[in-house]
Structures are given as structure tokens and as C-alpha cells.
């Protein structure tokens, strides 16, 4: 399993997930840059993602939804802030309605995805920062750790294909 560490810090308001992949940084980058590849690994296996718009370009907005086993769609947006290809990018992640308007009563996170070369491939470090401890606790209660871990653990199969 690629995920090697998961921790949340209520004082720093962060959730950090670290994963190791047996592939070069440029290949891991491609997974996140290409919406069709990203769809195969973003979201838990039982909640597949569909990216409507996606470009890792500063100032762009990616829109997506995940579909539940019952067919319900849960939408979200990424507002891309910075991009340093292939070593990472930052973005704001928010829940949204079906028209991709931010849902005000659900947490918004600031995210940094960093990809670092290792002897065996790539270390990916995913850090999500929330505005308040309550917001972090809300996503923890919603199952973000389980969902993100199961999503990231799908990447190995994609890289091997």
C-alpha cells in the first residue's frame, strides 16, 4: 500500500498523508495533471470521480463530482493557486452544489501536494489545512482519512498499467 503515514494536528489544523510510489516524479505528476487518469484514483473505489474541467494552471478551476453507489453525485471544486511541474501544486478545495457553487456550510481546505524523488521512486506528501479545528473535525467525522487513503492506494495499480 502506498500510504505510509497519516496524521492530523488539531493545533496546526492540518491533515497530512504521505505515500510512496515506485515510479518517477514525472509519472506521478501525470496522474494529477491528466483528468482521465485522475478520475481513476480520486475518491474511494466506491465513489468514482468525474472531472468536468481540469487544468493544473494557476488561476484555473477544476470541477468534479463523485458518484455514490446509489447514484448520488457529490460535487467539488479545486481553485488552483500555484503549480511547480512536476514537483507539486497548491489549491483550495471546496464542496459545491451541482452547479459548482461553493457549499457555505461545509469546510474549505488549503492543499499542498508535493512530489519528491526518492531512491525507489516518489514520495508524495498531501497536506490539507483548515480554517478551524471544528472544520478539520467535521471532515474527519465525514471519513476523509479513510476516503483519501483508499483513493491514494489505488494509484499503484494505475502506475503499473
TrEMBL record:
Source organism superkingdom: Bacteria
InterPro entries per the UniProt record, alphabetical: ASHA1/2-like_C, START-like_dom_sf
Sections of the chain in a coiled coil: none
Ranges where the Activator of Hsp90 ATPase homologue 1/2-like C-terminal domain occurs: 23-159
Pfam families: AHSA1
Assigned protein family: Belongs to the AHA1 family.
The protein's name: Activator of Hsp90 ATPase homologue 1/2-like C-terminal domain-containing protein
